[in-house]
Amino acid sequence: MKTAIERSLIERIGHALAFESLAIAIIVPGMLLFLDKPVFHLGVLALMFSTIAMLWNMLFNYLFDRAQARMGFERGLLVRIAHALLFEAGLILAVVPLAAWWLSVGLWEALLLDIGLILFFLPYTIGFNWLYDLVRERIMTRRQALPVTLG
């Protein structure tokens, strides 16, 4: 089993921004196919969703880590499933009312939009992170292979 990858704060921020930027570039045209709204309107909504998701991720994981420290459970399969479900439930509670208000639609239609986004983000997350790790590994290997020069 490989050890955990050490990443700087700058790299983590870059990773998150690349992840979210590419996602927005993909989902806005996708939403245009299904929603009769202006591209700017949908772009702003995607940006709001992205910001909420990043902030919720940080808060949720902080709270989850504190709960784990207090209760002493291990992160086995069932806990990881519960973690993912609780994260998505919290995100749904935050973004569905926002989408309903922003798009002037009912909660049901906003929920269906969110379910569509979840179905997009599951494979997107796996694919993006897999490709990111492959590219990162190649870059790191090349950097290590460069000769060291003394100045």
Strand content: under 5%
Mean pLDDT score, rounded? 86
Instruction: Please estimate the helix content.
Output: over 70%
Content-based structural category: mainly alpha
What sequence of helices (H) and strands (E) makes up the elements?
Answer: HHHH
Number of helix segments?
Answer: 4
Poorly predicted parts: none
Q: Quickly count the domains.
A: 1
Oligomer: single chain
Question: Largest sheet, if any?
Answer: none
The termini sit apart by 38 Å
Rg, nearest Å:
19 Å
What's the β-strand tally? Answer: 0
Shape: globular
Report on this model:
By secondary structure, the protein is mostly helical. The protein has one domain. The chain is built from four helices and no strands. It has helices at 9-34, 39-71, 77-103, 107-145. The longest helix is centred in the last third of the chain and has 39 residues, at 107-145. It is globular. The termini are far apart. The model has no long low-confidence stretch (mean pLDDT 86).
